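Methods: example folding runs. The two proteins below were folded one after another, and each record is reproduced exactly as written to the output file, sequence line first and structure-token line second.
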Amino acid sequence: MSSQGIRYTAVTFAIAALVAAVGLAAAGGAHPDGVMAGAGIGALVQVAAFWVFAVWLSPDRAWHGYGLGLLARLAAFGAVAFLVIPGAGLPFAATLFSLVGVFWLSTMVEPVFLKSRTSNPTQR
């Protein structure tokens, strides 16, 4: 499973780079600190949740780890919105849009990495 974790980590950081590039282009150079912070935090939370819940704690029950990872992402979103952004003085929209972009895209590809470990042999 650790090889899947490494591949997932690489894909997630590629997604974060893509979100940051699109966010910087869409913002027209405004608020680069918020875009980069949101993409970076999103990638770190996403990778940490995958490793903790899907690789280390419940490798034989991947979908339980997936659900716990969703809860961790929700908690991270709240913490960033209510604690990190005001504390660091980051722009709300740029930070949260890039954070959610990374969360959404990497969550959409996560089942691809979990599907190969399912206990149901009839699933493809």
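Second run, written to the same file directly after the first:
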Amino acid sequence: MWLEREYPELGDTLNYGILPQDLAEIEMAFGFSLPQPVRESYLCVDGQEPESSAGCAEGLFFGLTLLPLEDVLEEWRFWREVDDDPATGANGALRELMESIPAGWVRREYSCRGWIPLVADKAGNYLGIDMNPGEGGAVGQVIVFGRDFDTKVVMWRGDGPGGWAKFLAGFVEDLESGEGFEMGGAAHDGSDGSEDSIGYESYFFDGVGGGQGDTGGDVGTGGLKIAGEYKGWNVLEAWADKSLRRWIDAGIVSVTVLQPPSTDKGKVCCPHCLFVASL
């Protein structure tokens, strides 16, 4: 296993698997069964501890945390407050601004009870699974969504009903290849006030779907860091942009290049600022 060989401190943050009876109770709280790949992965590893006995406070995915299933449910429940909010989830004009890559694969919603957050950036953005996809998508596909993503992106190697298994396999392949990442220095978990940053009020401070800062930026990027062309990018933005490029290369998405606003890191703020995507 790569973690045992290369980064045992990070591996030590992984929890033991959830008990089957506890998994069943959480699924009852959701009101539906989770896809089999998600169930199997959580029976093996139930997310991460904030800090291991070895003193590592790193998130598994380049600093982003794999949520324990109880925390998944907690985050999901906070977002259910948004669904009926006339300023956000229930705002028809806001929903019209939502987009999907590829087009039609994710519903044009600001929030959706079918979006299950599994990986969090502590700023209201997530990688998770889609249990209520658009007409072109599939139940179980892996998507990037959240406060700062008006355009929801289906992950390359995360599509289809087995999306979570495909995404994890692709992540492991990337680690084994040794490309696209680097080992950083001292960890910074970005946890200042993080316990207070969970929930509706902190995610939607202005009541219109906006929030302070970008999508987490350098949160928790002390250990494994993205390198290469995406060095310095927010992890979720990097994954979304990389997936967008792969969908383009595969001929699933066609694009019109726009003149994007730049940031202090010389990148666009998110993929939909660079491209207008359609089937």
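Comment on the second run: Confidence is low (pLDDT under 50) at residues 186-221, 257-279.
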